[in-house]
Structure formats: C-alpha cells, structure tokens
Amino acid sequence: MTTRLIDRRALLGGAAAAAGLCRWPGAAFAATPFASRRIAVTVRGEGRDLLLIPGLASGPAIWNDVVTGLPGYRVHLIHVRGFAGLAAQANADGPLLRPLADEIARYVSEARLGRPAVVGHSMGGMLAMMLGLRGVPGRVMVVDMLPAGAAMVGGTASGLGFLADQLSGYLTGTVAGRRYLATMVAQAPGARDSDPDVIALALRDLANMDLGPDLRRLSVPLEVVYAIGRDAEQAKAIGQRFRAAYAGKADAQLVAIGPSGHMVMQDQPARFRAALATFLRQI
Q1: Which of 58, 212, 217, 250 gives 20 to 30 Å between its CA and that of 184?
Q2: Cα dist. 240→118, 196, 233, 237, 246 in Å?
C-alpha cells in the first residue's frame, strides 16, 4: 500500500469479487416485480430494509459473508447491469452514475421501502452518497470510497481521469486502450464477466464527480469504513486523507479496518460485520 492508494485500490475495485448473482446455500430468493434496464434487484430475508450496492465491476456476491449474518433485515441486493454477468442494456452508453442513482431511487419508491439504510462499496459508495443527498435513505454507510472519484487513485483529477482516458480508447478501438483494458480485466477476476464498455463509462463518470462540496447538504447520518494496511505511517496518511475528504460532513463517523485491501468486507469479514451491526443498531 502507498499513501497514493493506487496499489490497494487499483481501478476502484481491481480486487472485485467473483462475478455472478449472489447465492447462499439453502437460501430462498424473492424476485421483485421491479423492472429496469439499468439494475436488477434480489431480495433476501425479512425485517428492516437495507440496500447493498457493490462497486465497480462487482456483483452482489461481494456481500455473501455479510448477508448471512444479518437476521432481522430485508436485504435488497443491487446488481448494476453490465457488471458481473448481466447484459449492459441501458447502461451500454451515455452517462451512467446519475441514471443509476435515479433508478435505485425509483426502486426504493416503487417498493415502498420508506427511508432504508444504504451501504455502498467503492463506486456503490458514491451512489449511496448521491442517494443520501436526495434524502432517499435514512442513513448511509460508504465502504472504502472518497467523495471525489479521482482522489481514489492519486488525489487529483489526473489520476482517475488518466485511467478513464486510457479505457476510453477501448470505445474508439485503439490498440493502447484495448491493451490497458485487457490488463485491468486480467487483474480483476470480478470484471471478467463485466462489460468493458460499462466499466469505461463508469470510470469516466467517477473521474468527473466530486461530492465533497455537497457533503454539507447531506442531512442523513453518514458512516465511512475505510481500509488500512499494516504500515502505521501509511495508515495515518490514509486516515488523514479520509478525514479531510469528509470534513464537509462534520458528524460523519469514520471507521478504519485493517489490515485490509479494498474489499474490506471480504478481507476482514468479522470486523466489517461488527461495524455494520453497530451502524444498523442506530437506525
């Protein structure tokens, strides 16, 4: 890990979980009647409502260990079309993040969920904050994501912006773009069944989004879980970066979990479940 966070967070989800819909042994899934060309939703359990949104190129399977330890909750697992085995459909071109936030908000409204808790990892954390700014959830947990997408890979727009520019080469057919994308796919098992065009569009949106200035308008409770490694100095630097990034939300709760990579819920499942349980008890 470095203070630039590039290794731990390669491509905002380079360590994405294996693709595919979530499956738990012996679990019965209730399909929702909600129809969308941008997201699919699977519902499990009974009780208070909780939305889980995965990150870039990931599917709901990243939450497997989390959901099995959540009795008393009706969990709504969001699956972005184009990621982890789903066809892209409406996500194949054009803007991505804002339409996704619109569609998740529509789901919450049509399913009559009231103001559920929302937990989002990486890009899903950005979507969770976008929903929070609209007043959709009752409280938000962001997992290992800064409010500025570009800051996740270097702290300036040139970080994620450069990455998005390279990936956009895929869309125009350049050799360099295809090679860069192939490298990313090889390093991210969860992305192997994800649409490379949707990944590129997501990165471009993230490169141009900074919710930091808007955090003062976020009226719902916010908790941010972030990953740290074993090196104390690097952990301190990461903590400083997260505290500075979320300074606009004075009452935000920041929780460091480590040693961990970007996939906190998988690298430290017990500690993440404990943090999530504390978060949910405050609903």
Answers
A1: 212
A2: 25, 33, 11, 5, 10
**In 3-state terms, what secondary structure has residue 143?**
strand
On whether the CB atoms of residues 88 and 59 are closer than 8 A, the answer is no
Nearest alpha carbon to residue 224 among 206, 211, 233: 211
CA torsion angle 37 43 48 50 (round to 10): -50
| pLDDT at 165 (0 to 100) | 56
* Residue 184: pLDDT band with limits 50, 70, 90: low
The CATH number of whichever domain residue 91 belongs to comes to: 3.40.50.1820
Q: What's the domain count of the chain?
A: 1
| Within-domain flag for 3 | no
Cα angle for residues 203, 81, 153 (degrees, 5° grid): 20
| Helix spans in 72-156 (H) | 97-110, 123-133
d(CA 161, CA 163) in angstroms, rounded, equals 5
Residue 122 included in any domain: yes
CA 238 to chain centre: 18
The whole domain housing 33 covers 10-148+211-281
The closest of 190, 8, 251, 209 to 98, measured between CA atoms, is 209
Contact between 88 and 195 under an 8 Å Cβ cutoff? The reply is: yes
pTM here is 0.82
- 156 within some domain: no
Largest CA distance in the chain: 51
The residue among 89, 126, 86, 73 whose CA lies nearest residue 104 is 126
Tell whether 241 is covered by a domain: yes
